[in-house]
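Hi C.,

You asked whether I'd gotten around to modeling the 374-residue construct. I have! Everything is below, sequence then structure, no commentary in between.
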Amino acid sequence: MQNYNDVFKCFPADAIWGNGYAGFGGSPTVTVPEAPYHYPWTVAILGFIEQKPLYDAINKRVAIMYNSGPIGTVGYNGQVSQTVPPAYGTAGFLTLQSQQIPAFKCPSDNTLNGPGDMPMNMMWTNYAAAEGVGFWAANQPTTTSPPRSGAQTAYKGIFSFADFTTFAGIRDGSSNTIAVAEVTTGSVCNQIAATTTPQLITQTLPVISYTGALPVPPYWFVGTTSQPPTFPLSGGTGKPRTTLFTNMSTSPPTPAPLVFRALFVALTQTITGGAPCTAASLFMGAMGGGCGAGGNGFELSGTVNGAQIFGYPPTYNALYPPNSDWPGPDSNHPGAVIAMFADGHTQTIQQNVAYQIWASINTKAGSETINGEF
């Protein structure tokens, strides 16, 4: 990322989304020039991690996702593109998405063996970029203008939706601002049933709940160690989803759904709540449409001991503390996650870190005072 900044004078965006496609907003008469490209930051830095041949082989002028075409029909919600690849060689998307790059995998995570365990042979990553704190609607003033996050500056992370962050934009200091943290293949869950088997979770889908955008920065950002009013739960309350079930009465018990971060595709789907997602149009759900109602988006049953698998972009939301639930970071290292800061240093973050500190080190320009160690 430092080398990327040396060349382009900014960090990569969370993903390259594009502006939309013909029929934006449900009107077939409205046409905008681009389809959703769905290339995440992980693709942007390939040329700087000794993967330049792969980067050069990707035709980034076309969208990485597609509905149907000569390669075959792909039917799943949340991915809409009017362009059929090849985005990568003659085999197109299906070959690109299954490329394995060891640098993006944590050697401590053995949940899955390879892309063959995943829907559509989709490769995952154990490293997710910092979105910031809270879910925010996407803004697109006109059908031809680029989309942007609706978050106020105090909430934004280095990889806030559709933003390119410069070092000058990290006003809280690059050594105090997380750029990337680790996530496990299957994620964790803190929605544990209180009155039944401890291994039973209360949700059959990895949905989230949250309050809408606040008009001013929340009070826990400013010189306080208080927790948010009702949400989220404290760090460390999550348990690995691979050890949890949604139904213990079946034989065998029904495993809890897993959540992974796709390596090459900025997946968007209904489980993200207010995060950017696509349905009938590129940002329909993020701007108040049908996305975010708890649907199942990108999933496939039966690939890991019968568990459903849900995809998410290679980012995390710091509204959730470490090891608490799937939108936040989590790891297989006991009691902590490892984070990489904008200045390039890595650091272990304890899962019981004070929430005010956690929120502060995940925003790039909140001007918070950090009182305590992290």
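If it helps when you're writing up: The CA atoms of residues 3 and 48 lie 7 Å apart.

Thanks,
B.
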